[in-house]
Amino acid sequence: MKKSRSFLKWAGGKYPLVNEIREYLPRGECLIEPFVGAGSVFLNTDYDEYVLADINSDLINLYNIVKQRTDQVVQDSRELFTDEYNQEPVYYQLRTEFNQSRDPYRRALLFLYLNRHCYNGLCRYNLSGEFNVPFGRYKKPYFPETELYCFAEKAKRATFFCENYEQTMMKGRKRSRCFIAILLMHLCQQRLILRLIIPIASTSTISNGWHYWLKMSLKVLVCRY
């Protein structure tokens, strides 16, 4: 299976480890991913249905907009990937607009622009909830048109949720698989997740329990419902 890239740059993305992750994902009808991030696992697996979630509302809003209005997103966002908009003063103007905007569609376009023009593709907010990553100074930021269409086509099988992992993990049903990659996560956060899954794994809805692997510094939890 040829690997597909996300249309987003994403710190801690799972794309380099997709082949290893696929080795451990069992067959099933639905894949549940509480920490979808850039969506590399989603894009590189073949389940009938996906339940994808993240706590970042801007990320989930963008995914839903791309899914529902693909052609319009490609057309409108392409205009932001020109030399005119690849300038530091313009970047900061658009970053301010993003932080002040309450329009979901405009916010989605600007989130994509910021992701591709900011430093290292980071996603970071200050205590006031404002995106605050500086300008990336790239010669010609890549416009991911092909990746946007690829994502939109695959997203026909997906439902996106903005919620915490506890809520997402409860969405499992028979023949679902729940995947969690714990990358660069603080030890106390890992323990929190493990504490959460112990009572879930003891319920009658889960037939085969939880499996835990460590490979290439990747910690993977897979649940079979």
From TrEMBL:
It comes from the Bacteria. Belongs to the N(4)/N(6)-methyltransferase family. One of its GO terms (molecular function) is site-specific DNA-methyltransferase (adenine-specific) activity. Its EC number is 2.1.1.72. It holds the Pfam family MethyltransfD12. One of its GO terms (biological process) is methylation. InterPro entries: Ade_MeTrfase_dom_2, MeTrfase_D12, SAM-dependent_MTases_sf. This is DNA adenine methylase. It is an enzyme of class 2 (transferase). PANTHER family: DNA ADENINE METHYLASE. It catalyses: a 2'-deoxyadenosine in DNA + S-adenosyl-L-methionine = an N(6)-methyl-2'-deoxyadenosine in DNA + S-adenosyl-L-homocysteine + H(+). Keywords: DNA replication, DNA-binding, Methyltransferase, S-adenosyl-L-methionine, Transferase. It comes from Budvicia aquatica.
